[in-house]
Amino acid sequence: MEKVKNEAVIVIKDLVKAFGEKVILDGFNMTVEKGSNVVILGKSGSGKSVLIKCIIGLLQPDSGSIHVFNGNVPEMNEDELDEARSKIGFLFQSNALYDSMTIRENLEFPLLRHWVDIEKEEVDRLVSEALENVDLLHTLDMMPSELSGGMLKRVALARTMILRPEVILYDEPTTGLDPVTSREIEDLILKLQKKNHTSSIIISHDMNCVKNTADLVVLLLEGKCYTEGTYEELEQSADQNIKQFFE
Ligand SMILES: Nc1ncnc2c1ncn2[C@@H]1O[C@H](COP(=O)(O)OP(=O)(O)OP(=O)(O)O)[C@@H](O)[C@H]1O
Fold first, then answer.
1. Does the domain formed by 1-87+201-247 have CATH 3.40.50.300?
2. Among 154, 18, 171, 212, CA closest to 88
3. Is residue 47 within 6 Å of ligand 1 at its C-beta?
4. Residue 190 C-alpha to ligand 1 middle, in angstroms?
5. Looking at the predicted structure, is the pLDDT value of residue 93 above 90?
6. CB contact at 8 A, 106 and 98
7. What gap in Å lies between CA 83 and CA 56, rounded to an integer?
8. Closest protein CA for atom 2 of ligand 1
9. Beta carbon of 46 within 6 Å of any ligand 1 atom
10. Residue 2 pLDDT > 60
11. Ligand 1 centroid distance, CA of 117 (Å)
């Protein structure tokens, strides 16, 4: 039976990006359906970050299209890009929290930047709600240096979610965390996704994270989508290019 397709939120077609002679993306195709988690698997240097930068308009591809919310990112002007980016959350590998600001100030920052007319009470309410979602309300007035790596990742996740993005891009969300904390972050990603009906692209080398979070795994190899399928489908493959990630 053919799988019923949900609405697509990101459709990438024939994407090409080279730096000089070096072709990084070479006709890459991918579709992210609404409410799904797509994991991009690829070796170091395969172009995962380049792809993410093209999706958020930080890099201009040489050709191809990236349709996000019905607009084609490479053709968007600055205002359209700003609008699209406000609907796309990004969880950086480094968390990108400001060390000199309290947790409260870190969470207020995107609200005050994007929603300039927002009332103080609404800011307080949204900050508290975002921290409650990750069980860290008690850290409101702490500094980032007082928190563990797992707690910082949860704060970063709360900050990413605070603008209610429709799509979230996760860059190696569990790298550097122990297995128990990694599992907590994966569960949190799934919980918040369900609650807010978001769609995600996750870059990860951590096969436990891939297994626990992916609805679809896309294997990026030599600039192309080499194959895509569920974790279980790829795990059973006899193809050496696929098997190497599961060994
Ligand atoms: N601005 C740039 N100018 C020139 N080359 C670049 C630029 N950005 C990326 N590259 C090259 O593109 C290739 C892919 O890099 P990218 O960072 O996307 O890999 P990656 O798959 O994210 O790797 P990792 O898993 O190690 O983070 C690398 O060879 C890198 O040197």
1. yes
2. 171
3. yes
4. 28
5. no
6. yes
7. 11
8. 19
9. yes
10. no
11. 39
Query: Whose alpha carbon is nearest atom 6 of ligand 1?
Result: 19
**Residue whose pair of structure tokens reads 């919980």 in the numeric block:** 191
Q: Are 199 and 102 in contact (CB under 8 A)?
A: no
The predicted model scores a pTM of: 0.89
Q: Is the pLDDT of residue 96 over 90?
A: no
What is the predicted pLDDT for the residue at 4?
55
Q: Is 44 in the pocket of ligand 1 (CB under 6 A)?
A: yes
| Domain range list for the chain | 1-87+201-247
pLDDT tens by residue, 24-74: 999 999 999 999 999 999 998 999 999 999 999 999 999 999 999 879 999
Amino acid identity for residue 245 in this structure: F
How many angstroms separate the CA atoms of 88 and 167, rounded? 5
Our mutation pick for probing the ligand 1 site, out of 26, 48, 52, counting the most ligand atoms within 8 A of Cβ, is: 48
